[in-house]
């Protein structure tokens, strides 16, 4: 078991889910509430692991804005030598504090992903829900945004609008079975609806976007990714990812239709 200490540093998500440090050259913002600037974020937490089960707990404070708590539970059940079930639960609890710079907030957002894995194939079903009249928000980096650890946080959309519910179907393949070690393929599709903040008492987020009752905007996203990790030689462990996303939405949703392609190269450098 490892425990984190309370420190004051910029952070966007628990370790493993996004950026957890930066320099002091600029302020931080909220991902959704962009105009609010932040000097530092305090957080504390820990990770517990026992066999095929792990649990992570973190709490953070954005001064005069919110307290935010995060929990992650993972469990793997081996069915046979080459088959397994995996469960991944994530939840955030956010409540306003101090001067309420982002107005009143009472938000619980959670997701559950269940994966069936057989040999090189994995099939995942996921459900995600925002239980609040406010959107799920987190710390970001100006117009670059931030990251959040939820099952349906896709390449373009995060499916975290007020009261939104979303589903995802995902397929992963390790192409080592076809004689190409290091090459993997992933495709996923998510759809969201039930979006409304008509009864919200939050004056900050509703100024940015209003979802009236009955409008029920919907949207969906499809992602495709190929990833290759170099297996040997001077560039060993370097990874190259080619990602494509298609996003479509109905009238009333705040993000437009979008098509994008990303090429991401990661080259690890070992100092010691």
TrEMBL record:
Which GO molecular function entries does the Swiss-Prot or TrEMBL record give? porin activity
Q: What is this protein called?
A: Outer membrane porin, OprD family
Q: Which UniProt keywords apply?
A: Signal, Transport
Question: What phylogenetic lineage does the species belong to?
Answer: Bacteria, Pseudomonadati, Pseudomonadota, Gammaproteobacteria, Pseudomonadales
Q: Which GO cellular component terms are attached?
A: membrane
Residues of the signal peptide? none
What domain of life?
A: Bacteria
Question: Which family does the record assign?
Answer: Belongs to the outer membrane porin (Opr) (TC 1.B.25) family.
